[in-house]
Fold:
Amino acid sequence: MMKMILSLDTHVSASRKLLWAAPLAGVVAAVLNGMLFSVASFLAWIPADFLMPTTGEAFGLGPVMVSSFLPSLGAGLVLALLSRFSERPLFVFSVLAGGVLAGSFISPLGIGAPVRMIAVLEVMHVLAAVTIVGGLRYALTHR
Structure:
């Protein structure tokens, strides 16, 4: 009985931490990727006239920041569920996040972009992953 109470308290504590940590990690990832996008655009590594193949809209700062922020909310939800149902939530979360990161490397390859732009997009994926996963792990392991 005591183990069940401790488990529930741990889950509630983890959920509370993730309520603020996930959006915060997303904001940090969005700002960092926004800065990287701005520098890459200034250096003309990302063409100003590049259109996103899925929407036909210009590839700009807005989509970069939204695409950097939203995964943090999903990651926070996954980690909250894992903290509730897994004995090793941080390990399982890290393995899943690594798989998602590896899969994310495929998407920029098929958009017909210049090599420098693809390289910047891949670095953005790594930057977002490290920021979000690191931030969420830190939030659960520190007071």
Remarks:
- Residues 2-141 form one domain.
